[in-house]
Design a protein that fits this description.
alpha+beta, Rossmann fold, Topoisomerase I, domain 2, Topoisomerase I, domain 3, 6 domains, seven-stranded mixed sheet, about 20% strand
């Protein structure tokens, strides 16, 4: 009997098949002596749309809400139906004795495979491949240590509970909002509180009142000193009068050093990357969007096989990974990393709790290099950048702490306190990994209010009196809160505590333990969805909320705007995965909550004004039309869903402009159709057709391609001569 292996993607299936010796290709499968390997394309099966339960749901009407099916149905996704048929056929082969689930090792990966089995009605024995990288070594070790598939039944139940809960709340909430306000509005337990955080930040910026502050600095030979308030310890004052008085008293004063403090300090390397931290830093450093970083990581994981599983929320590795560190160093120790990795290869690996902790490893450990040999010249520029970030962070945690001597001096002049700070590097440690010895950790922002700038300080003693060479009055304004970028929005989604209204310590703790809003795997998609649905937009690198989103937040139930809701869900889903609470109990609560949401929206008294409203009137119902952008066309549609009137204003065509050769758009006005190019060229359809007919003496691209195919068959004849002869009489 053979085993059927189900991978999540074709690329992973090919890698597994190669290792297992399943090399015979046969329409959606790879087969060998003992294994048949096939694949999903992400999800092949999903929850059915409402109209699959009852035809009354085909029309969006408030009277049909809430929609609460007794049992949720599964349907095959139309676009991937052919591959589902391939997988189903393999499942019921008589020579297949067991199923090995090899989809991504996590909640959603479990759902991908189990839904396929459930929809197909397959009940054969199952085993689970649980690996964090797709190198040959990892695959071999994984197959040597396959788990009982039913060990992950609770994980599957948690995945189903998440999917059904999102369907119930999302479908009902979206339909209720759309029917109530006659607009295409959507809501969800992650996207809505994410929007609310952006709106709250914009409100803080709007209400912010700039305030001027003052500081005083003075210079002695080789040292720059900064005034510090003796009581508040602040380097600023908001009183100009006070600042000017202090500056005036310093005119003829001398500075006397009152203390010189030297402390030996050390800093550990920043932690290993999880996906969210990597996305944030890649956005800050290179401007990559969260989605771009995830896609790059996926290629480095699946295609190049040089990095471990990207969708992880852990920044630690387990003790089981420690014995493989030398092999990973050997693999990545090439090119710019050769010297750095070589220094670690020549001595025992030093591990500590800052990056090795079994208790803090979830489904997957932190993102680190694999044992796969690296070919940097096979990577794109973007892939090199992300790979460089991960490798340098991996090397950094293996280097010793950076050690330095912190020197802090205080002095008195005219009864006021002044301070100066400096540091002397004793050992670069992990900072050697970063070019120029710079601290490459982008996570912590300096607090200018609390910090002094370090400078090179000469040897000084207490009691030394110094001549003041120069005094300066410095002014500045307190900055308003910064608008979100993708980097800071990811950070806020991961840790939204400051946006929570509750001070319930348990809720705060839960949100921290469950990873905030969304998961490492879904945050990038949520951000992309909010952009594509015109809920938010980018201006430069900053994220701004749109009028549509502002209005939506006024109309949705309060609970849906709060991070506490998703924290509560994730806590319960985690409990389901651990077998501590029942899936059915959780979904019963969700059904009750869905009814509450629909009732609240039904009874709402708000209004929604379309910001894409035109002055054109619908010829069928008399309401004003909305201007919308379709995938390949611009349209006017009636704002009343029941009316359904729509007309195309323009559509993108394959017709080329005779001047600049770019694609033209077809504009329709009454019965008249006109091609318009962005360069300014215009041509009526009738004139265009006449011109093309006149030019028809020539041949099209397809004619040339067909001729070239015929030419390839005449292998014994000189191709160039035949081609020239054949085309000599053709007008191109």
């Amino acid at each position: 009997m053979k085993s059927l292996v189900i991978a999540e993607k074709p690329s992973v299936a090919r890698d597994i098949a190669r290792v297992l010796g399943a090399n015979q290709k046969n329409g959606g499968i790879l087969e060998g002596k003992n294994y048949v390997v096939t694949w999903a394309l992400g999800h092949l099966v999903t929850l059915a749309d409402p109209e699959e339960y009852d035809r009354k749901y085909e029309k969006w009407e408030m009277a049909t809400l809430p929609m609460l099916p007794k049992e949720m149905k599964l349907v095959v996704i139309r676009q991937t139906g052919r591959q589902f048929s391939v997988v189903k056929t393999q499942l019921f082969r008589k020579d297949i004795g067991e199923i090995i689930i090899a989809t991504d090792a996590g909640r959603e990966g479990e759902l991908v495979a189990r839904w396929i089995l459930e929809k197909a009605g397959c009940h054969k024995p199952i085993k689970r491949l649980w690996i964090s990288s797709v190198t040959d070594k990892a695959i071999k070790e994984g197959f040597a240590n396959l788990k009982d598939g039913h060990d992950y039944d609770n994980l599957y139940r948690a995945a189903v509970a998440r999917a059904e809960a999102d369907w119930l709340v999302g479908m009902n909430g979206t339909r209720a909002l759309t029917c109530k306000y006659n607009a295409q509005l959507s809501c969800g337990r992650v996207q809505t509180p994410t929007l609310a955080m952006i709106a709250k930040r914009e409100e803080e910026i709007r209400k912010f009142v700039p305030k001027e502050y003052y500081g005083i600095s003075l210079e002695t030979q080789d040292v720059k000193w900064t005034w510090r308030d003796e009581k508040t310890k602040s380097f600023r004052t908001f009183s100009r009068e006070r600042a000017e008085q202090i500056k005036g008293r310093l005119e003829n004063a001398a500075l006397e050093i009152t203390s010189v403090e030297k402390k030996a300090k050390k800093t550990m390397a920043p932690g290993l990357y999880d996906l969210t931290t990597l996305q944030r830093e890649a956005n800050l450093k290179y401007g990559f969007s969260a989605k771009e970083t995830l896609n790059i990581m996926q290629r480095l994981y699946e295609n190049h096989k040089v990095l471990t599983y990207p969708r992880t929320d852990s920044r630690y590795i387990g003790k089981d990974i420690v014995p493989t560190i030398k092999e990973r160093l050997k693999a990545c120790g090439i090119g710019p990393y050769r010297k750095l990795a070589g220094a670690l290869m020549n001595k025992p690996v030093q591990v500590n709790g800052s990056f090795v902790d079994d208790k803090r490893v979830s489904d997957h450990h932190a993102i680190i290099p694999t044992e796969q040999f690296v070919q940097l010249d096979h990577m794109t520029n973007e892939e090199r950048k992300i790979y460089d970030m991960v490798v340098r962070r991996f090397l950094a945690v293996l280097y010793p702490a950076s050690q330095y001597e912190q020197v802090t001096m205080e002095a008195k002049a005219a009864g006021e306190t002044f301070a100066a700070s400096g540091k002397v590097i004793k050992s670069m440690g992990w900072k050697e990994v970063y070019e120029g010895g710079a601290d490459d950790d982008l996570e912590d922002e300096a607090d200018d209010e609390k910090k002094l700038k370090d400078q090179r300080l000469p040897e000084m003693k207490t009691g030394t009196r110094l001549k003041i060479l120069k005094t300066s009055l410095n002014t500045g304004k307190i900055k308003p809160p910064a608008r979100f970028t993708e980097a800071t929005l990811l950070a806020a989604m991961e840790n939204p505590v400051k946006f929570m209204e509750t001070r319930d310590k348990e809720a705060v703790k839960t949100l921290g333990e469950t990873g905030g809003l969304g998961t490492v795997a879904t945050r990038a998609d949520i951000i992309e969805k909010l952009f594509h649905s015109f809920m938010m937009e980018k201006k430069g690198n900053e994220i701004h909320i749109t009028s549509k989103a502002k209005q939506l937040l006024e109309l949705v139930p309060e609970d849906l705007k709060k991070p506490e809701l998703t924290a509560d869900w994730e806590m319960k889903l985690s409990q389901i995965a651990k077998g501590r609470i029942r899936q059915g109990d959780f979904l019963h609560q969700i059904r009750d909550y869905t009814c509450e949401i629909v009732d609240e929206i039904k009874n709402g008294e708000g209004t929604f004004r379309h910001d894409n409203l035109t002055n054109k009137v619908c010829p069928q119902c008399g309401k004003k039309l909305l201007a919308v952008n379709g995938k390949n066309s611009k349209m006017l549609v009636c704002q009343d869903r029941e009316c359904g009137y729509r007309e195309t204003i323009s559509r993108t065509t394959n017709a080329r402009c005779p001047k600049c050769h770019k694609r033209m758009e077809m504009y329709v006005k009454g019965k008249e159709e006109t091609f318009v190019c962005q360069c300014g060229y215009k041509e009526k359809l009738s004139a265009f057709q006449a011109r093309r007919q006149k030019e028809g003496a020539g041949v099209g691209k397809r004619d040339v391609q067909n001729y070239l195919r015929r030419q390839q068959k005449e292998a014994n004849e000189p191709v160039n001569n035949a081609f020239a002869q054949a085309l000599s009489g053709i007008k191109l």
